[in-house]
Every structure is written in structure tokens, then in C-alpha cells.
Amino acid sequence: MVLRVTALSKSYGDVAAVDRISFHVRRNEIVGLLGPNGAGKTTTINMILGVLEPSGGSIEIQGLNLARRRRQALARTNFAAVYSPLPGNLTVYQNLRVFGLIYGISDAARRIEALLEEFDLQRFRNVRCGVLSSGEQTRASLAKAMLNNPDLLLLDEPTASLDPSTAREVRRKIRAVATHGKGGALWTSHNMYEVEDVCHRVLFLSRGRILLEGDPKTLPREHGKENLEELFITVAREPLSLEER
Amino acid sequence: MAFKRIAAIVLRYFYLVRGSFARFLPLFAWVAVDIILWGFISRYLNTVAAPGFNFVPALLGAVLLWDFFIRVMQGVTTAFFEDVWSRNFLNVFATPLSIWEYLAGLVVSTTTTSAIGLAVMLAMASAIFGLPLLIYGWLAVPFLLVLFLFGIALGIVGAAIVLRLGPAAEWFVWPIPALVSPFAGVFYPISTLPGWMQSIARLLPPSYVFESLRSILSGGGAPVSMLFCAGGLVLFDVALSCWIFARVYRHAVRTGLIARYSAESIT
Questions:
Q1: So what's the pLDDT on residue B7?
Q2: Is the pLDDT of residue B266 over 80?
Q3: CB–CB contact A87 B88 (8 Å)
Q4: Do B15 and A94 touch (CB under 8 A)?
């Protein structure tokens, strides 16, 4: 098991942002974490990344308890999020070099060259990230996310600013990493076509709780919906109608 | 602590300084201006004051040491602000990097930059104004060490203030040396101060450095007990500053401020 989340909670005063959720990500599995804005997706990801302390529950990454063995657990994790671009005042290469050291990559120079090529970033290697287009910045963030060949890859709307062609290519690369290596991925997206294409399993979050879980290809029909987008809209607008089932 | 992770923070700062004239120039420009200003003031005072007392080592030497402390403190805070300005907290802290490694990286970064400032000041003060570098003898080493450590301590406290209160709080940090200087007795003996200010001065390690400096110049030598007091106090200050930063960081992780830092407050 790459990731095991058990009874995870986060409260701010009386408000439960995440309410005792449990789920897991298996090896070579891509799990979609879906839900409307404010459902608790990013809060969950922040807790898994160790930058937000849970109010309760536990997180294990490759069997390592995050609260007790933070450094070892996070050394096996990496992430890319649309709201957390790499520092714009360093070049692509400099950013990768700095994060290569932080993650303790051996033979970092070769790894960086391979990632620059894989994400089509060679011509931007000496360009400051701040002047890249949003799509190029996303590719740079993804290259950073792959630096340590993570066991657990967390992706918060990784293709949000990419054109359809680049997004497809990026999905292919992430899928190749997540399904052929030793790890798995947790993926959030508002693009239901993408989720259906990439994810093996999806979790629908609503008001901090997991409302539905299943195969994105069959889940909509199981709940009387035409497709994943319709199911998403129902989760966002009428979550109680699904809870009652 | 892992050397590689500390090196990452240092390398990040090196890249920034190397690639930016606006970051490189202040490493020595403002201290150079200070040395020139106070050098001429010292030279002028030598012409109007009673003969026999040399203001250059007393005044210019004190300015040099005080500017060194300011460079160290601002070196730590500026290296920290780089992550604030580039909104880099999530990238940095969602990694195996511990806060001790992060702080160590900031300290090593500022050691290099403040050494550049010190070298420029020493070169100018001795070449232009004839500051006798060896006049303080071997005591120059503990003087510099105490001021360096005090700069580290206040720099870490400054970083904690900004981490706790948000990016706008950096304006609380810049004036800290100016607030401390009246109590530190940079230019006058502590006995000049009223009683309550003397009580505060006794808690500040730099006050012992500047008292010792004046004692040496007046031919009295430096009481070793003063240096021990300064050493003990400054080690306590460094430990206290690290504890404060750790507490503030933990608060930021508990409330989610690290992940949403630009909001300045979660409540």
C-alpha cells in the first residue's frame, strides 16, 4: 500500500473541513480525489504533505507514519499543484538543482537532464520560471515532482493550465510513472473527462466526507447518471440525494 | 541534519545573489557608505577634540562592529524573505527538509554574505581612515563571534515574526537594530544611560562587546568576565530564538498558515 489514510480529520473551531475520512492508494494505482470547491480536497492533500497538522486520524506513506517519521515519509513523496509554482526568480535548472539536493537525489545532474528532456524543457533550462507560460510552468513543476521518483505522487489539478494537446501528453507521462514504477498517485481535477481517462478509482468528497467511491467508468451508472460530470454536479448540488441511497 | 538539504538552501540563496545586481550590491554598498560617513566624522572629531584620544578606533571601530551585526541579522531575515516573496513555503516545507536544516541553511547563507560585508568594511576603514586592525588584539575574535551570534538570534526572531504575522510584518523587522542600538551602547558607555535602560542593556550581549572595546582603547584591557557574560547571554539568545521559531512554525502547521501564507491569518 502506497498511502493509507485512516479516520483523518481537520477542524477549524466547530467547522470540520475534513471529517474522519479513510482511503488508500495501492501500488500502480491512480486515485482521483473529486469534489466541489471547499469539499476538503486541498486540505486533505496538505495534511498528506505534512504542511497541515490533522486534528485526528493517521497517514501512512509506504508504511511510514507521517506524524512520527515525517522526513522518511516525505522523502518518498512529491507533489505538483497549480497554486504552488516553482520560484519565479530561479531558472528551471536552478530550481531542479535545489530541489534535487533537498530530496537527496544521487546523480542529480543526469536525473535533471532526463527530466528536462522528458518534459520538453531543454530550451527553457536557463529561463527563469517566472517568465514561462503557465503551461511551461506546470511542466517545470511536474519535472520537480518526478525528481525523486516518488512512491506517492500528489497532483492537485496538474493539467489545469495546459492546452488539450499538452494535457494529454502530460497525462500519458504521469500515467506511465504512476502505473509502471513502484508508486501510486492521488489526483484532483475538475476535468471529468481527464479523471475518467486517467484514474483507476475515484473518491467523491463533499463537506469533508467521502460520499462515493468506485470505478470512474461505472460509478455514474450505478447512481443513475449519464456520466461522471453529471454525477459531480449532483454531488455538488444535492449531496443528500446520494447519501440517502 | 543532512548536509545536502542545508546546502540546498545555501545554493538557492547563492543563485539569487549571483543572478541579481539588486541583491549583490547591498552586500557591501550600505556598509561602505557608513564607513565613509563615520570615518570622516571620526577624522573631524580628532581635529576638534582634546589631543590624545583617537576617535577612529573608538567610533569607526564601533560602527564597523555594529554594521557587521546588522548585516548578519538582515542576512538571515533576507534569506528567509526570499521564500516569502516567491511564495515558496509549500514547495520548501512539503519536503524532507526539517526546520533545523532550513535555519542552518539560512545561517550558512548569511555567514558568507556578512563575511563579504566585513571584508569590505575592514579594507576601507584601514585603507582610507587608518583604522589599526590589530588594536583590539585577539579579542576581536570573541567580539565578532558574539555580534555574529546575536545577529543570528535576532534574524531568526525576525523570521518568526514574519512567519507568524504575515508578509507585511517585515516592516517590524527592518528597524530592530535601530531599536536595540540605544541600549547596546555602541557610541557611549552604558553608565550614560538612565537606570532602567542600563538594566535592559545588561541583558544585551552587544553592550558587553562595546564596553570591552572602550575599556581596551582607554588602556584598561577587557575584563574576561564581561566576555563570559556576553558569551553566555548570546548562547541563551540563540537557543531562545530557535525555540520561538519552532513554536511559530508548529502553530503555522497546526492552523494551515504554511499552506495559505498569503492570507496572513487563517482566522
A1: 97
A2: no
A3: yes
A4: yes
CB A143 within 8 A of CB A119: yes
Whether residue A152 contacts residue A3, with contact meaning beta carbons closer than 8 Å, is answered with yes
Element (H, E) at A24: strand A15-25
Q: How far separated are the first and last CA of chain A, in Å rounded?
A: 30
Strand order in the sheet with A64-65: A15-25, A3-12, A56-61, A64-65
Q: What is the pTM of this model?
A: 0.91
Instruction: Let me know: does A3 contact A48? Beta carbons within 8 Å.
Output: yes
Question: Cell match 562592529: residue?
Answer: B65
Domains of chain A are 3-76+150-243 (3.40.50.300), 86-149 (no CATH)
Question: What single-letter amino acid sits at B30?
Answer: W
Mutate to test the interface with B, among A95, A96, A97, A101 (most CBs of B within 10 A): A101
What ipTM, to 2 d.p.? 0.90
Q: What is the DSSP letter of B131?
A: -
Q: Return the closest-CA partner of residue A220 out of A208, A238, A235, A198.
A: A235
Instruction: Write out pLDDT tens, residues B169-225.
Output: 999 999 999 999 999 999 999 999 999 999 999 999 999 999 998 888 887 777 788
- The size of chain A, in residues, is 245
Report the candidate in B13, B122, B7, B131 with the shortest Cα–Cα distance to residue B74.
B13
Spell out the alpha helix ranges (H) of chain B.
Answer: 3-18, 21-24, 29-48, 55, 61-85, 89-93, 99-129, 140-165, 170-173, 176-184, 195-201, 205-217, 224-255
Are A196 and A217 in contact by the 8 Å Cβ rule? The answer is: yes
CB-based burial, A49-73: b 16+ in 10 Å, e otherwise: bbbbbbbebebbbbebebeeeeeeb
Residue of A nearest to B86 (CA): A87
